[in-house]
Specification:
Elements (H helix, E strand, L loop, with lengths): L6 E4 L2 E4 H21 L5 H22 L16
Antiparallel strand pairs: 1-2
Helix pairs in contact: 1-2
Keywords: Membrane, Transmembrane, Transmembrane helix
């Protein structure tokens, strides 16, 4: 029996629902972890630690969640 993959249309593109949920949870968790690791009361450091967490999550998501789309180009679509 073939396992069916579920896709969600988001901003005109199809996204695997499982990958989307994993990416949102990872991004939110690392952003909040960075925020809470910053010294208490220093809002500037809290902002930058949170941003650092978001950037780390972006890098992890980029390397571990690969695009699923296949792009094919037919000869009639080529522009001279």
């Amino acid at each position: 029996m073939k396992k069916e993959t579920k896709y969600l249309e988001l901003w005109g593109d199809l996204v695997n629902l499982k990958d989307l949920v994993v990416a949102i949870i990872l991004s939110g968790s690392l952003t909040m972890l960075g925020y809470f690791l910053a010294p208490n009361g220093d809002t500037t450091k809290q902002l930058f630690f949170g941003l650092a967490g978001a950037i780390i999550a972006l890098l992890i998501n980029t390397f571990f969640i690969k695009p699923k789309r296949l792009i094919s180009k037919s000869p009639s679509q080529e522009v001279d």
